[in-house]
Amino acid sequence: MNMKKWLALAVACSTLALGACGGKTETAASKASDASAPAAPASDKVYRVAMNAEFAPFESLNEKNEVQGFDVDLMNAMAKAGNFKVEYKHQPWDSLFAALKNGDVDILASAVTINEERKQTMAFTDPYFEITQVILVPKNKEIKSVEDLKNAKKVGVVTGNTGDTAVTKILGNNSEKIARFENVTLVIKELENGGLDAVVSDSAVVGNYVKNNSDKGFTMVAVPDFEVEHYGLAVRKGDEATLKMLNDALKEVRANGEYDKIFNKYFAK
Fold first, then answer.
1. 112 neighbors 118 (Cβ within 8 angstroms)
2. Which of 99, 135, 150, 184 gives 104 a disulfide partner, CB atoms 3.0 to 4.6 angstroms apart?
3. Can you give the C-alpha Rg of the chain in angstroms?
4. In the predicted model, what is the mean pLDDT of residues 244-250?
5. Hey, which residues does 86 pair with through a beta bridge?
């Protein structure tokens, strides 16, 4: 092949290669890229993030049926910092762990408490939020301790949450005093309707409810019997690549101040 033909072929191949690189698709749910974002990631993989969007202020649905909340904002900030893409899926709490194990989703970002039992079947990132269990008490009830809780007629919890575990330890595994509900919205609604004497759930969620429903006269009671817990993002056991990606991104958003901005948006007094 003479030099002129070789040059012409090289130019044509270069033009084809450039044309094939265009058309980057941004995932609307993540909103993790903008003009100032890092260069495009090496992979076009979109990480599927599942949550039960009935746990405000960490995850809930807005009027457009879109997920919103602390966990969503944090994941979006991490996706931008780590240069990866995410999309969200709202589903029942009791289906989350199976969905992760079966490979239907890649990440759980749903205020999942890190504990030894869950570590047997999934891997967690570094902790990103600290809470404890507290008691939500209506104005006509005098419940200020675990002993008072033992004397209550009905105590509400969300099935499978750590509040369920905590109350089960106090009242017994088969106690008829425990009323279990699918999500925190339902259990609090039952408390409002007078069907329960108290609800045990996560401090940040209960605190958010009390703050936004001050007219109802409910109080949040903290007791020393409940241990400090930490939320983590969960991935499949053995998925070290995703785990490292998330931990690196979490460290970055803590270092660049984005974590503090998101925290103050939801929890500043």
1. yes
2. 99
3. 23
4. 98
5. 47
What lies within 8 Å, CB to CB, of 75 at 6+ separation is: 30, 49, 86, 88, 107, 109, 233
Find the length of the chain: 269
pLDDT-based confidence at residue 15 (cuts at 50, 70, 90): very low
| pTM given for the model | 0.81
Helix (H) or strand (E) run with residue 213 in it:
none
Tokens of 155: 């105590």
Tell me: cis bond preceding 57? Omega within 30 of 0 counts: yes
Q: Which residue has the tokens 């999934």?
A: 122
> Which tokens is 209 given?
């409810």
Q: Alpha carbon 34 to chain centroid distance? A: 24
CA 254/CA 77 separation, integer angstroms: 10
The Cα–Cα gap between 52 and 61 comes to 10
Instruction: Name the H helices within the chain.
Output: 3-20, 70-82, 96-102, 116-119, 146-150, 162-171, 184-192, 203-212, 240-255, 258-267
Per-position DSSP letters for 234-247, written without gaps between them: EEETT-HHHHHHHH
